[in-house]
Design brief:
two-stranded antiparallel sheet; mainly alpha
C-alpha cells in the first residue's frame, strides 16, 4: 500500500509539473500573440494615419488655377519674408501708421518703402479675389516650419497691407484702402479653410488685425453706402461656426498625434509620449475656440459699427441707442458670444463707445 501511495504521489507531481508547464506555455503564447497584434496595430495605425491624411487632401483638392494656396506659395518663393516692423522708422512711427490713417509726407521713408513693394501688394490683391484656398495637410508637422511655407510670409504681408491701406485712407484713396483691408480679411478666410489648428489660428489672427483697424476707419472716415457695402461683403458672417470648423480639425489633430506615436515595442518612449499628449489636443482646441470667440466678438462689433455709420449718414448724428437702428440688427449680431450678453453702446458727446461685458 505504501508503494502504491508513493507511486501515486510521483504521478500527481508529474501531472502538476506538466500542468504548470502547459499553463505557463499558454500564458506566454497568449502574451506573445497579444504583443504581436498590438505591434501590428501600431504599425497599421501609422499607415492608416498617412492614408487618412491623403484621403482628406484628395477630397479637398481643387484645380490649381482656382487655388489661392498655390498662388501664395509662388509669391512666397519669389520674395523674402518681410519684417513686421520695418527698421527704417522708429517704433512710434510704426505704431501710429499701423493703428490709423496717415499721410505719406509725414513719414516719407515708410511711404517710399511701401512704394517699392507695390508689385507684391498687387499680387496679393489679385490672390484675394480667389474664393478657395487649399494648402496640403502635411503628415510631418515639422515641415510646417519650413522657410518657404507661405504662412510664415503672411504676417509680414498683413502689416504691409494694413500700413499701405492706412496711408491710402489718410490721403483720401478710400476705395484702395478698403481693397487692402479686405485683402487681409480674405487672407484670414483662406487660412480658416484649412482643417489644421496652426493654419486656423493664423487665419483668426489676420482677421483680428484687420477688424481692429476697420472699426477706427469706419468710425472716423466719411464713407458712402458703396464703401460700407464693400466692407460688409468682405466680412465673415456674424454666426459662430466653430463646431462646424472644429469637427475636421479634431480628426486631423488626432491623425497628427497618431503619426507621432512611438511603436509599442519602444515602451519607454511610448509611455512618455502618452503622458505628454494625453490632454494636448483638448488644450489646443480650447485655446483656439477662445481665440475664435474673441475675434467673433470683434467681428460682430464691426457689423454694428457699419450699421451705426449708416444711421449717421442718414441722420447726421449717432443714434441714442442700438434700438434706433433701422433695419434692426439680429439678436445674434448684438450679442457677445463669449458670455451671451448684449453689447453696451454709450454716447459720449459727438462720439460713442461700443464694448462688451465679456472678459477681454
Amino acid at each position: 500500500m505504501s508503494e502504491d501511495k508513493k507511486r501515486t504521489k510521483k504521478i500527481d507531481k508529474a501531472k502538476r509539473r506538466i500542468g504548470r508547464f502547459w499553463s505557463t506555455s499558454i500564458i506566454l503564447a497568449a502574451v506573445a500573440i497579444i504583443f504581436c497584434l498590438l505591434w501590428k496595430v501600431s504599425l497599421w495605425n501609422s499607415r492608416s494615419a498617412d492614408e487618412q491624411l491623403a484621403a482628406i487632401n484628395a477630397a479637398r483638392a481643387i484645380p490649381e488655377s482656382e487655388n489661392a494656396g498655390v498662388a501664395y506659395s509662388k509669391v512666397a518663393e519669389e520674395n523674402l519674408p518681410l519684417p513686421d516692423y520695418p527698421p527704417i522708422v522708429d517704433e512710434q512711427t510704426l505704431s501710429v501708421t499701423h493703428a490709423k490713417p496717415w499721410l505719406g509726407e509725414d513719414y516719407p521713408k515708410l511711404a517710399a518703402w511701401l512704394d517699392e513693394r507695390q508689385d507684391l501688394i498687387s499680387k496679393l490683391l489679385d490672390i484675394s479675389r480667389m474664393e478657395k484656398c487649399r494648402f496640403p495637410i502635411l503628415s510631418d508637422r515639422l515641415q510646417m516650419s519650413h522657410f518657404s511655407n507661405p504662412v510664415r510670409h503672411m504676417r509680414g504681408w498683413d502689416y504691409l497691407l494694413v500700413r499701405s491701406a492706412n496711408m491710402d485712407a489718410g490721403e483720401g484713396r478710400i476705395d484702395a484702402a478698403i481693397e487692402k483691408y479686405a485683402c487681409v480679411l480674405q487672407m484670414g478666410s483662406h487660412l480658416r479653410q484649412q482643417p489644421v489648428l496652426s493654419y486656423y489660428n493664423n487665419g483668426v489672427a489676420k482677421e483680428s488685425l484687420a477688424l481692429n483697424v476697420l472699426k477706427e476707419f469706419i468710425t472716423q472716415t466719411e464713407l458712402t453706402e458703396k464703401h460700407l457695402t464693400a466692407i460688409e461683403a468682405a466680412l465673415l458672417p456674424a454666426k459662430n461656426k466653430w463646431k462646424q470648423h472644429s469637427r475636421t480639425m479634431v480628426k486631423v489633430q488626432r491623425l497628427f498625434e497618431r503619426k507621432g506615436q512611438p511603436r509599442l515595442i519602444d515602451w519607454r518612449r511610448y509611455w512618455e509620449y502618452r503622458k505628454a499628449t494625453s490632454k494636448s489636443d483638448d488644450h489646443l482646441l480650447d485655446v483656439t475656440d477662445s481665440f475664435n470667440l474673441r475675434t467673433l466678438t470683434n467681428r460682430r462689433s464691426v457689423h454694428i459699427v457699419i450699421a451705426l455709420r449708416r444711421f449717421k449718414n442718414k441722420t447726421g448724428h449717432w443714434p441714442q441707442s442700438l434700438d434706433r437702428i433701422e433695419p434692426p440688427l439680429s439678436k445674434e449680431t448684438l450679442t457677445d458670444p463669449r458670455d451671451n450678453t448684449p453689447f453696451v453702446y454709450e454716447l459720449t458727446g459727438k462720439d460713442f463707445k461700443l464694448h462688451s461685458k465679456g472678459a477681454d
